[in-house]
Design goal:
Blueprint lengths: L14 H21 L19 H15 L17 H7 L27 H17 L1
Length: 138
């Protein structure tokens, strides 16, 4: 063929790795094209940034969760995730924390078998109200 288009997604857990990935993809594409007597053009679009929580705000959020649900129901042992999240833009501008509220034993979000557990709604409401009241009282 006269032209080939390749596309893909790059997700990283560290912002500096985004720079490296973009540079390396360009270098590799150029090198492979040259080796084949062709030319490569890279159009690289950066999507959502890495979601990075700020430690003080995360500790504050965890304290509120423990007040609302009890120590036994709160875990901070969540492994890094490669999801794309628009809240990342907020965390680039302001300190904060992206947290999850458990939903019980169901399929993951974005799965056709997912079933939202309405019984967790009061915990979510209580979390946000307690967080706002505590932050505003400080």
């Amino acid at each position: 063929p006269d032209a080939v288009t390749l596309s893909g997604t790059v997700r990283t857990l560290m912002p500096e790795m985004r720079d490296m990935a973009e540079a390396r993809i360009g270098e590799i594409a150029t090198g492979v094209a040259m080796a084949m007597g062709a030319k490569a053009t890279l159009r690289y679009h950066r999507g959502y940034p890495v979601t990075i929580n700020h430690e003080p705000e995360t500790e504050f959020a965890l304290d509120i969760m423990r007040k609302v649900a009890g120590d036994h129901a709160v875990s901070d042992a969540f492994p890094p995730a490669m999801g794309a999240e628009d809240f990342s833009y907020m965390l680039e501008s302001r300190p904060g924390s992206f947290v999850f509220i458990g939903n019980g034993n169901t399929a993951n979000l974005h799965n056709s078998a997912y079933d939202f557990n309405d019984e967790v709604i009061p915990f979510g409401i209580s979390y946000w109200v307690t967080l706002a009241e505590t932050a505003l009282a400080a």
